[in-house]
Amino acid sequence: MLDLAILGILHESPMHGYELRKQLAVKIGTLRAAISYGSLYPTLRKLQAVGWIAEGDAEDESAAPAGTEVPPMTSRRGRVVYKITAEGKERFQELLAQAGPETFEDQGFGVHFAFFARTDPATRLRILEGRRRKVEERREGLRDVLNRAAERLDAYTLELQRHGLDAAEREVRWLEELIASERSGRTPGPAPQVGTTDMKPRSDTPERS
Amino acid sequence: MLDLAILGILHESPMHGYELRKQLAVKIGTLRAAISYGSLYPTLRKLQAVGWIAEGDAEDESAAPAGTEVPPMTSRRGRVVYKITAEGKERFQELLAQAGPETFEDQGFGVHFAFFARTDPATRLRILEGRRRKVEERREGLRDVLNRAAERLDAYTLELQRHGLDAAEREVRWLEELIASERSGRTPGPAPQVGTTDMKPRSDTPERS
DNA sequence: GTGTCGATGTATCGGCGCGATACATCGGCA
DNA sequence: TGCCGATGTATCGCGCCGATACATCGACAC
């Protein structure tokens, strides 16, 4: 799971750990708390060991894209800059495409969804529908409790169930819209995504800082 | 965290592991997935070791006399019924009252909230406000991203942020209502908690809503 | 100049809790 | 009679978190 997230971020641009974590926080922080360093660094080392990422020895990456007035930070120091390898990119695509059961769980879904711009349309649809199914099951479970066993629960527990049910219903509706959007071809925004190989989203943004 | 949840369920009635997990699922399953057996049984053993729960005598099983020379070598497992001890009840109240930082996290909050009917009003208010603060921070973070960095994100990531923001805004509103409800004394339901002789009005945070 | 304070940056350690798995009993039902 | 699914207890590996420890750097004070 972290593998996918880290590869995805490094796919956009080489980065060192600290920065990586911040990017990760805004990218997938919606459904999942920020990644802990206790997870990040060991994972980085593991990914490096299997050859999916490598230590890039360059700060001069920042020199390449013009127009980037490198914001305050990012100066030279003994930082370790990681970049994704060719093998890592392959593996990233594999991980994106394969949707196991945990893909439909909160965290897994969040990570996959965050990289939808790089995912092929068929997989997107599969994941959205799997997630919808998951949330629908949860919704039905909550409805059952509220209909069948409401009188056995105290008011607070009941209120918690209601709030959870509301959230589940909303997410299902949200997913419905996204699915309809996918089917009609109009993906939400500027990402028509044709071609199976190496599609990059609006990579015009330097992505620094 | 699991300690609190298990003590809370066993506080209502003695139970064996399998049943306990099912109860737990409906009680706190809203904000948290069902507890795994890989967590449940070790925790039960730990709680038993420190004396907060004890094995209750499974009476109906003992209906057959002790002349059970039937089991050859395989240790026949019976169902183990656990019940909370007096010390466990004390500890439960302590855990309920103490609200550390993880109390305001998704899972921690869910567990605490599920037992609000057993929590004193002052603590309820404290926890609700702490949670609200937490969710507000998250909401502000998402707003910042959407206002300041929207153009650097692809459409899917953006959509994820929007959905997260919507959920955060809803939860804040939900919490506001609960807080108002608490303050006005009309707690939602059959747990007025009036027995407390000296409830201090606890003139609370200047932040009102 | 130097003190120390907050942000940046890398790294480890203990432990919680999950998912998979194993094993055992019991009631249907074909 | 034999299979199957629900009930029930238990363990193991490991992913990830939270706390913690260091070290450097710019800034502002004194």
Q: Mean of the pLDDT scores of chain A?
A: 82
Q: Which runs of chain A of at least 5 residues are low in confidence (pLDDT < 50)?
A: 59-77, 190-209
What is the count of helical runs of chain A? Answer: 7
Largest interface: A-B, 42 and 40 residues
Q: Compute the gyration radius of chain A: what is it? A: 20 Å
Tell me the β content of chain A.
under 5%
What strand order characterises the main sheet of chain A?
A: 1-3-2
Secondary structure category of chain A: mainly alpha
Binned, the helix content of chain A reads 40-55%
Number of strands of chain A: 3
Pfam families (chains A, B): PadR
InterPro entries (chains A, B): Metal_resp_DNA-bind_regulator, Tscrpt_reg_PadR_N, WH-like_DNA-bd_sf, WH_DNA-bd_sf
Protein name (chains A, B): PadR family transcriptional regulator
Domain Transcription regulator PadR N-terminal (chains A, B): 6-94
Structure, explained:
Two copies of one chain form a homodimer. With 209 residues, chain A is mostly helical. Chain A is 55% helix and 5% strand. Chain A is built from seven helices and three strands. In chain A, strands 1-3-2 form a three-stranded antiparallel β-sheet. The longest helix of chain A is centred in the C-terminal third of the chain and has 29 residues. The C terminus of chain A is likely disordered. Chains A and B meet through helix 5, helix 6 and helix 7 of A and helix 5, helix 6 and helix 7 of B.
